# Entry
Amino acid sequence: MVRTLLAASVVYCYAHPLFDGLRPATLERPLQFFYAQVNDAAAQGRQLLTRFDDARMRAYAQTYMQRVDAQLKQAKTSGALASQ
# Structure
C-alpha cells in the first residue's frame, strides 16, 4: 500500500507542468490527464468535507436551539404558575 502511494505520488509530481519539457511526448497527455484528475478529486474532497462540517454544525446548532427553546418554555410555564 505504501509503495503504491509512493508510486502514485511520484507519477503525480512528474505530471506537474514544471516538467513539461522533460517528459517523453507519448506520456504527455496521459500524465496531464492524471494530474488533472487528481486535482479534481482533491477539490471535490475539500467540498465534501466542507459540506459534512456544515451539516454537523447545523445539527449541533439545531439541537442546541431545541434545548434552549425547551428551557424557555419551561421557564415561562413555571413563571406563569408562580404568578397565580
Observations:
- The mean pLDDT is 84.
